[in-house]
Amino acid sequence: xxxxxxxxxxxxxxxxxxxxxxxxYIVFFLIPLALMLRYSFAxxxxxxxxxxxxxxxxxxxxxxxxxxxxxxxxxxxxLTVTGITLLIGYPAAWAIARMPDRHxxxxxxxxxxxxxxxxxxxxxxxxxxxxxxxxxNSTLKWLGLTDKPxxxxxxxxxxxxxTEANLYLPLMIIxxxxxxxxxxxxxxxxxxxxxxxxxxxxxxxxxxxxxxxxLTGCIFVFLPVTGTFIVPSxxxxxNDIVYGNLIASQFGESYNxxxxxxxxxxxxxxxxxxxxxxxxxxxxxSGGVAQ
Amino acid sequence: xxxxNGPKQFDRRRLLKGAGAAGLALGAPMTxxxxxxxxxxxxxxLTYAVYSDPVLVDGFTDQTSxxxxxxxxxxxxxxxxxxxxxxxxxxxxxxxxxxxTKQLFDEGLILPIDTSRLSxxxxxxxxxxxxxxxxxxxxxxxxxxxxxxxxxxxxxRTDLVDDPVDSWAxxxxxxxxxxxxxxxxxxEMILIAALYLGYQDxxxxxxxxxxxxxxxxIKNALIDQKQLVNRYWSDVSEAExxxxxxxxxxxxxxxxxxxxxxxxxxxVQLVAPKEGTQGWCTSTCIAAGSQNIDAAYEFLNYVISPDxxxxxxxxxxxxxxxxxxxxxxxxxxxxRMTFNDPNIVESMIWxxxxxxxxxxxxxxxxxxxx
Lengths: 291, 370
Fold this sequence. Notes:
heterodimer, A: MetI-like fold, two-stranded antiparallel sheet, 12 helices, B: alpha/beta, D-Maltodextrin-Binding Protein, domain 2, two-stranded antiparallel ribbon, about 40% helix
């Protein structure tokens, strides 16, 4: 059968172009996801997975207060990290966008350079820099400025949040940069010349115009941080375990893949809902303002 | 025995190496080695780096011209996950701690071993050869060859701890809030809490079974302790770094810690707590998927010979399960390895199978999540 029998001629090129990526997503995303969904209805007995159909895992996820409590902790962490990256990232994106054109590629490249190193390396870099025996504390002690290390980066929530923020900052800056960069500066000048002060101009004109980029950046940072587990394991303290650690442990030491799958699916569902809300907001923001 | 690293030097590079391994291990559950079972003339050895050190295994290759391909794991959970993921295939021989031999044997991931094929079997200390965690099979078949063991006591900074340290209670002492570290291995933490609470009788039974009330008490004790803990470490270098910097003044300790830290000039002391020292015996087992059974038996015989056991004690500081090897060691070496207690093999609380593995895992998750 000829391809033209299945796909209208004008779409054939598109089908060819999208074929490989579609195949990729089917094989490496949809099928594994379907398997995980299946696992989430199975159960483990004596370390063997029984492929029955049961809702017990989901019941456990929603009835056991541990899971919900840790989910709240994960959300608190991702909100904090999103906040930090936004506060640092917005001015940075603005500054880069207002640079002369010849400097912009260099600055953007600098932003990406840390991503050339593995994230494990970057996590340990943070620890070597800021830990109690790290470079900063050692230097302060050597200079005689302190006799005890400053303990702000000692296996705690601050360390986890700062490390995550360090990992994801470029993902906040780039989308904001893109929306700020193409902003029509004459609108901003018009606001000023019509008597609007800088603060009012920012909140009434600049921020609404860049809101789509802000929301995209927030999505890029918020979603992965909600599912994180490596950073809390490496720089967090005994009280900084989050939801992602619990999922990881079900696939590792606890060997309860069905429960782990149910935990992961529940998180995925929550994130999909949040993504929906955030993209609707982004669409509303970009549609609600004349560009 | 969550992790043991080979090199003895304690330095920044080693810390990083251990740290990197920890990071990799965290991501490890979903990765699988693509290797199939070894070619003949090779044995894939799933083990801690310290047990596959060339100092120990090169002698085997010299004798048999069979080379050892190490596939090192960082912690026991990782080993179990790897074996389960491939149904025991892809590996020939594997190091299994005493609390896990029965479980892996029952799951069919390790093969029963015919001791009549091992000429060195009779040189084992009888306490190991007849232990419940070894005599898992029927009719003279066992789950593995007990190879190396080690007591786990308390280690503390003699310059930073004023109270006398002779009890696990130091890990619950409010004076050291934020200066205690512990291991991120639920099984061992439950044993320690049970020792602290006085459940010695339950710990000596095989399998270890706790009542509901005891489970609750253990959980509450661990939650109380968590308020004092600065870090649940997951490998040796992390534990040693805490003691070396003084951030940690007391933790669960092994012989290796004391050797390493003394070499660094750090004042530490390893002690046997009065409630009992706990410890493990690691067996070398044959993985269910091995295609090199004959070579595997040769290796199993080798690991309880002096060629493996002497450097194990002298370079690594771990006692062999072989009486013959122990009798060949200088007295100070054996005294150190046994906490100066000649009867330690009888008096120690051995890691044995948990009666309800799932419940133990859940309990630890609850403690960490609390």
